[in-house]
Amino acid sequence: MTTVAPAPEALTDHTGKPRPMFDMPLTYEQARLGMAFHEAGHAVLSMAYGMHIAKSKVIAWEPEPGKWAVTGSTRSQAHNTPPWHYAAQCAAGEIAHVQYLMAYGLWTPERAAACAADHDRELAIDVLAQFGFRLGRDHVPEGGKSWGMVRGMARRKVCHLWREIWTVAHAMTERTVLTGDEIAALTGLVNPPFEGVRNDDADH
User: Fold this and answer.
1) Which of 203, 174, 167 is CA-nearest to residue 46?
2) Bridge partners of 178?
């Protein structure tokens, strides 16, 4: 853990607004592993859906003596990814984070609520809108899907790939940063080759 705060862009959403911060009453090690599960959820589902992963990492720092904070980042390329698969991998971080709490006997309603990742939902809504697909926050828009439906898709995939997510999360909390190729080697999934320039990468 570093005493230096991460770069501002690591703490903002895709629109440049600060991501909301939540208190989660866990030890540093528990919170760090939980964030690793969040990022592993993004990375594993993205790769399973045919997306290229550049890297996935946990970020931890000490904002003031005796205090700590954690976040994470997964950089991926969604070239030719079906829109609803893209949305499901956006939802996978939060789903894997809550599943981690349940698997480790740490779940409480308050901790589950603190796993909320509205920035991932808003990213999915905005990206899909660019391609004419309608994703509703709390309703099913005509011809589209609700975020609840997308979360259901993600939950099924997270359960199916839980072994891979568990493996990546534990490796990430030990190494801090994993490349896409390292994730592929750990899981047996294929990291598709990078195509084009990185100006359309998604960062969760």
Assistant:
1) 203
2) 56
* Terminal alpha carbon distance of the chain: 20
Q: What element of type H or E holds 178?
A: strand 177-179
Helix H or strand E segment including 177: strand 177-179
Q: What is the pTM of this model?
A: 0.91
Nearest to 84 by CA among 165, 164, 19, 152: 152
pLDDT at 203: 64
Q: What is the pLDDT of residues 34-66, one digit of tens each?
A: 999 999 999 999 999 999 999 999 998 888 888
Of 160, 178, 133, which Cα lies nearest the Cα of 48?
160
Chain length of the chain: 204
139 CB contacts (<8 Å, ≥6 apart)? Answer: 146
Task: Say how far apart CA 59 and CA 38 lie, in whole Å.
Answer: 12
Which residues are CB-contacts of 200 (< 8 A; sequence separation ≥ 6)?
Answer: 77, 78, 79
**CA 75 to each of CA 35, 93, 103, 199: distance values in angstroms, whole numbers, following the listed order:** 15, 13, 26, 11
